[in-house]
Amino acid sequence: MGWLASFVARVGGSTHLAGQAMLRMVTPPLDMRETSRQLDRIGVGSVNLANITALFTGLVLALQTAYALAAFGARMYIAEVVAMSLVRELGPVLTALMVGGRVGSGIAAEIGSMTVTEQVDAIRSMAADPLRKLVVPRLWATVLMLPLLTILADAMGILGGLAIAVYEEGMSARYYLQSTVDVLTYRDIGLGLAKPVLFGFIIAVIGCHNGLNARGGADGVGKATTNTVYAAAIAILVSDFLITKLFLSL
Q1: What region does 73 belong to: left with phi over 0, alpha with psi -120 to 50, or beta?
Q2: What digits encode the pLDDT tens for the residues 102-127?
Q3: What is the spatial distance between Cα 245 and Cα 239, in angstroms, rounded to a whole number?
Q4: What whole-number distance in Å separates Cα of residue 209 and Cα of residue 19?
Q5: How many Cβ atoms from other residues are within 10 Å of residue 237's Cβ?
Q6: Which residues of 162-200 are buried (b: 16+ CB within 10 A; e: fewer)?
Q7: Distance between CA atoms of 34 and 97, rounded to whole angstroms?
Q8: Which helix H or strand E contains 127, and what residues bound it?
Q9: Is residue 249 part of a domain?
Q10: Could you tell me if residue 91 is inside a domain?
Q11: DSSP character for 172?
């Protein structure tokens, strides 16, 4: 039962940190310099990773869809399947998983190194708030940048599907793009953008929590980084199911 107690403690600690951080996110002051730095590191630094992942996901999804629908003579629906799958599910989830592995581990490693070298204690000794200085800028940066990265990823995935539809299936680009526009609703787009906001918050909270609780020098930082990657991935997948279930029940 030791693993269960550890799990409950981690969930409780992350939830407590999330509550404290949310309060500080909406109250001044905000360290704009650090927030801008994190926006660049988290957002700009993850563009290539998110776009490459989405591009090849769109390519594979279009290929598999064309192959599966060929038996029913319905290859003309490639655009609809690719657009709905990417915007609703694959775009937000794959972007969060890929960016979460990079960003979450980076946050945990950076804050964990500061914790084990007593820099966080030094911040407290100067009557400063470590959560406001270290956690809030990373939360804002992740929450703001992940939806933008998801939009870019959706566009790249749709372009990947377009390439397959045009060059492999002989479909016109105009028909593909028009079908994509026709099938997507504001409700679908809203769901596709709401998910990465929550995913970004989850990634940053887990990374910050593990970093702030790192112990034991370099080995402790390594464990905090590893724990962040798999905990963030599991949390993203579970929350995705819950959000989708709630969305479909409305």
Answers
A1: left
A2: 898 889 999 988 888 888 888 888 87
A3: 10
A4: 12
A5: 13
A6: bebbeeebebeeeebbebbeebbeeeeeebbbebbbbbb
A7: 24
A8: none
A9: no
A10: yes
A11: -
Neighbours of 223 (CB within 10 A): 16
CA distance 120 to 34: 16
* 54 phi-psi bin (left φ>0, alpha ψ -120 to 50, beta other): alpha
Q: Which amino acid is at 64?
A: Q
Q: Which domain holds residue 59?
A: 34-243
Q: Which residue has the tokens 């963030």?
A: 232
Tell whether 2 is covered by a domain: no
The single residue listed with the structure tokens 């464990």 is 223
pTM of structure:
0.91
**Nearest to residue 156, comparing CAs of 235, 80, 228, 91?**
91
Over residues 176-218, the pLDDT tens digits come to 899 899 998 888 898 899 999 999 999 999 999 988 888 877 7
Work out the number of other CB atoms within 10 angstroms of the CB of residue 201: 20
Residue 248 within any structural domain of the chain: no
How many domains is the chain partitioned into structurally? Answer: 1
